Amino acid sequence: MFKSSGGERVMEIINNIVLLLIAVTMLFPFLYIFSVSFSSVSDVLNSDFLLWPKEWVTDAYSYILGSDQFIRSLGVTVYITVVGTFVNLVFTSTMAYSLTRNIIGQRLILFLVLFTILFSAGMIPTYIIVKETGLLNSLWALIIPVAISPFNLIIMTQFFKGIPEELTEAAIIDGANDIQIFTKVILPLSKPALAAFGLFYAVGHWNSYFSGVLYLNDPSKWPIQVILRQIVIVNEPNAALGGHAAMLEALPPPETVQMAAILLATLPILIVYPFLQKHFAKGVMLGSVKG
Amino acid sequence: MNKVMSNKLLIALYISPALLLVLVLVFIPLILSGYYGLMEWDGIGDKTFIGLENYINGLQDMKFWSSAYHSFLLAIFSTLSLGIYLVISFILASKIKGSDLLRKIYLIPMLLSSVAIAQLWIKVYNPSNGILNVFLKQIGVENPPAWLADPSLVLFAIFIPILWQYAGFYILIYYAALKNIPESLIEAARIDGASAFQIATKIKLPLIKEVVSVTVVLAIVGSLKYFDLIYVMTSGGPNGASEVMASYMYKLAFSSYNFGYGSAIGFLLLIITLIVTFIVRKLTTPKERIEY
């Protein structure tokens, strides 16, 4: 093997430190949010760097979790994530499968899809179409317009193409039709890929807020990220949570409520991430190999 | 023959729902955008055809040009930041201990919603008790700036969270490309006496040129259309200092109810993105493909 010289050793150490520092900047904000959300008012206002709660206070959490509005929005988000991801996977996989079969106009269709990865008309015409199709103020407005991500579609098509042709040919000889090939051969072989795409889509649904702001007027239909925006940006935790604070003796400070809300809205994803990150990374890599 | 035909029908059946969605939700809006731009319209009442007036106004609108300037600044920032990502990926790919765990950590910001990220960074930038200014005061800076309220700094201040958010994505793409390079090529170069730096710049970089070129396009187009954090953090303020094309368009349509003019701006934004993408693709696509 090659002996590394002294200079290279130093380089290596510097590199390691830089990489670690970057990792710290990625994680540090979470620690900060976590600490503030569990701290008391006086600690938040008086201390400079709050990296760990001095005394543990859970007022903010009981306040948020006691709000009907917050719980309802959580339900809405779970609904959109589950239904939306299902719709995504059905539409994306069926279209990806058809694109692997030689059909007329395939190149044109592929071009149309690729075009939409880079260019979109923007929110005004999309808004008008959502309005004209009567989806305004319906939860489907958060699902149907994003039913297919062209990026994911292309990657999934590539993935399906990578499945050995002998398998589908054998199925055809056995008399299978396209639906059978798709459901009995292609889908079972694509489970890991489907998991990766499902995760991509699910994270997207969980985090979507702008379509909620744009399409939903009725606060009872707002998903969690819209409520979060009301709490933290509009800075009206009490109004956003349905004004149930009147029943409490003292209002927890907005600072801690905001942080607790961020943590609660993000937690589900952070909990699932370690289990699914392998697929997630694979998804990004699949995309890049195609380039 | 009949079997083949029925298969074709079936495939057409498969593809139709998705294709229909793509057509209805992407291409029709695209054409509509250009069409609405020809109208005077508040989004609710009747449309009045006014010809190219909106487009001419748009081209003479200083607010539009300043928002376009900010969008282009973002695009330049993002392209430069790809260099940083590239360096990090090179280090990561060079057999660093724990690189797996590091990559996982780098991806975390990508999982967060824009609202959460925006809120987080608003706290960091808080002029009086934000972490950043508290730190600056402790190391002796007397009057640290009010980042998001300072017109000359706000764009830069918003760019940092964007850099932070997308780091994991681009690093992972580069990392995957670097790991795809056959080990034998690197070994051969090392035997020929190439230094680590030479291997990185003379061998690895040319081999992942194609991937880099694609990410440059992605970063530039993404920046020109960028909206998310700006909308949540400053909504274009203070006094238009962080207004970008997309946020300007949003304001025209959904705050001033000037859908016609907003659509025209949206269409101009699309044309600009198309032209820039075309130019960037021409400039960055490697002339010959390197096979290995």
From TrEMBL, chain A:
Q: Where is the ABC transmembrane type-1 domain?
A: 74-276
User: Where, by residue number, does the polypeptide cross the bilayer?
Assistant: 12-34, 76-97, 109-129, 135-155, 194-216, 257-276
**How is it placed in the membrane, per its record?**
Multi-pass membrane protein
Intracellular or extracellular location(s): Cell membrane
Instruction: Provide this UniProt record's keywords sorted from A to Z.
Output: Cell membrane, Membrane, Transmembrane, Transmembrane helix, Transport
Gene3D superfamilies the record matches: MetI-like
Q: Name one GO biological process term.
A: transmembrane transport
Q: What Pfam family is a match for this entry?
A: BPD_transp_1
Q: Known SUPFAM superfamilies for this protein?
A: MetI-like (SSF161098)
Q: Which domain of life is it from?
A: Bacteria
Q: GO cellular component terms?
A: plasma membrane
The family note in this entry says:
Belongs to the binding-protein-dependent transport system permease family.
Please identify the protein, giving its name as recorded.
Answer: Carbohydrate ABC transporter membrane protein 2, CUT1 family
Upper lineage is: Bacteria, Bacillati, Bacillota, Bacilli, Bacillales
TrEMBL record, chain B:
This protein's source sits in the domain of life called: Bacteria
Membrane-topology descriptor: Multi-pass membrane protein
Q: Which GO terms describe its biological process?
A: transmembrane transport
Q: What is its main location?
A: membrane
Keyword check for Transmembrane, yes or no.
Answer: yes
Which stretches are transmembrane?
Answer: 12-32, 72-93, 105-122, 153-177, 211-233, 259-280
Quote the subcellular location field of this record. Cell membrane
Q: Which SUPFAM superfamilies match?
A: MetI-like (SSF161098)
Give the GO cellular component terms, alphabetically. plasma membrane
**Which CDD domains does its entry note?**
TM_PBP2
Pfam families documented for this protein: BPD_transp_1
What does UniProt give as the signal peptide span? none
Instruction: Check the record and name the InterPro entries matching this protein.
Output: ABC_transporter_permease (IPR051393), MetI-like (IPR000515), MetI-like_sf (IPR035906)
Record flagged with keyword Endoplasmic reticulum: no
Where do the ABC transmembrane type-1 domain residues begin and end? 68-280
Q: Which key words tag this protein in UniProt?
A: Cell membrane, Membrane, Transmembrane, Transmembrane helix, Transport
Annotated family? Belongs to the binding-protein-dependent transport system permease family.
> What is the name of the protein in this document?
Carbohydrate ABC transporter membrane protein 1, CUT1 family
Species source reads Psychrobacillus psychrotolerans
